[in-house]
């Protein structure tokens, strides 16, 4: 029961849509800005982690939704104050000002590219945050919704509804999504603009590394999507850092998911869980925390010339 309003626990989410809910766990209490009605999947996920909705509702100020036209470089309403009043056009959650950098170790890379794909049949969302390895600041972001090549309309609509309906952003997805084969050249232009991808290195990254939560994104999904889209796998997707392995080897804790790691670190989740751009933001916050605590991030997996993936850490999450 919610002590704030007396509603049954499972109703708290729906009742306080757009506001903040607190969650208690063995690791402590953390606040969760509510998504729009994803209570069932999130509460199942939380209970599987032995985290539970806390009985107290905190009436924090509602969080403005991120303008997802802006993140994809196509907001046409920046001159309208009512739009700017209602939508965020930045990443407020990645403020590094309060960080104590005294334990930060030199890293092997100048930049990290935090990637978190969404989509099970084909990729539906491709968000990447570019993070400075020294200052831990967000340098820039790349975000595109991705239109599947093969899915028939009915199946596509179902898939988009399943992924994004709970966030109320289906129409934005339908208006903005582009094919993966068109996303990749735009992504490469963006990488080149930041000098992270240079021709001299034969399409490999320049002192930068991808960071993902798990191996699925780069080991499995990118090559699958390249096959479906009839493209060669770009050479920069040959190695990556699986944050779960870094986390395990640094803290000695098994964080099997982003939520599990955040629960153990007592970090509040920001944004909508399973919206890729928000998950990439939360993964970045775990990465920042690891570095602030003194961790050195190293490549954890590499695709060899025979295309087999080699895992470089003995102690890793299976
Ligand atoms: Zn906007």
UniProtKB/TrEMBL annotation:
<dbReference type="InterPro" id="IPR036397">
    <property type="entry name" value="RNaseH_sf"/>
</dbReference>
<dbReference type="InterPro" id="IPR051274">
    <property type="entry name" value="3-5_Exoribonuclease"/>
</dbReference>
<dbReference type="GO" id="GO:0003676">
    <property type="term" value="F:nucleic acid binding"/>
</dbReference>
<feature type="domain" description="Exonuclease">
    <location>
        <begin position="111"/>
        <end position="296"/>
    </location>
</feature>
<dbReference type="GO" id="GO:0000175">
    <property type="term" value="F:3'-5'-RNA exonuclease activity"/>
</dbReference>
<dbReference type="InterPro" id="IPR012337">
    <property type="entry name" value="RNaseH-like_sf"/>
</dbReference>
<dbReference type="Pfam" id="PF00929">
    <property type="entry name" value="RNase_T"/>
</dbReference>
<keyword id="KW-0540">Nuclease</keyword>
<protein>
    <recommendedName>
        <fullName>Exonuclease domain-containing protein</fullName>
    </recommendedName>
</protein>
<dbReference type="InterPro" id="IPR047201">
    <property type="entry name" value="ERI-1_3'hExo-like"/>
</dbReference>
<keyword id="KW-0378">Hydrolase</keyword>
<keyword id="KW-0269">Exonuclease</keyword>
<dbReference type="InterPro" id="IPR013520">
    <property type="entry name" value="Ribonucl_H"/>
</dbReference>
């Amino acid at each position: 029961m919610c002590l704030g309003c007396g509603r049954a626990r499972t109703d708290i989410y729906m009742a306080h849509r757009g506001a903040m809910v607190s969650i208690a766990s063995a690791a402590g209490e953390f606040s969760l800005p509510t998504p729009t009605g994803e209570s069932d999947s999130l509460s199942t996920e939380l209970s599987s982690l032995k985290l539970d909705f806390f009985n107290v509702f905190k009436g924090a100020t509602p969080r403005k939704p991120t303008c997802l036209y802006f993140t994809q470089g196509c907001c046409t309403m920046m001159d309208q104050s009512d739009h700017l009043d209602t939508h965020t056009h930045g990443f407020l959650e990645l403020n590094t000002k309060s960080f104590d950098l005294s334990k930060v170790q030199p890293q092997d890379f100048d930049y990290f590219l935090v990637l978190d794909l969404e989509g099970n049949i084909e990729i539906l969302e491709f968000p990447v945050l570019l993070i400075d390895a020294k200052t831990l600041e967000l340098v820039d972001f790349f975000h595109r919704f991705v239109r599947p090549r093969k899915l028939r309309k009915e199946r596509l609509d179902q898939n988009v509804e399943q992924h994004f309906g709970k966030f109320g952003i289906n129409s934005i997805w339908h208006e903005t999504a582009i094919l993966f084969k068109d996303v990749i050249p735009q992504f490469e232009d963006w990488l080149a603009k930041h000098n992270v991808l240079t021709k001299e290195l034969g399409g490999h990254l320049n002192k930068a590394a991808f960071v993902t939560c798990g191996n699925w994104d780069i080991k499995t999904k990118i090559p699958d999507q390249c096959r479906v889209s009839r493209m060669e796998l770009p050479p920069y997707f040959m190695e990556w850092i699986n944050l779960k392995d870094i986390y395990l080897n640094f803290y000695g804790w098994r964080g099997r998911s982003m939520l599990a790691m955040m629960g153990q670190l007592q970090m509040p989740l920001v944004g909508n869980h399973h919206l890729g751009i928000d998950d990439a933001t939360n993964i970045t916050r775990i990465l920042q925390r690891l570095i602030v605590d003194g961790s050195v991030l190293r490549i954890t997996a590499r695709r060899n010339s025979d295309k087999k993936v080699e895992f470089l850490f003995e102690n890793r999450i299976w």
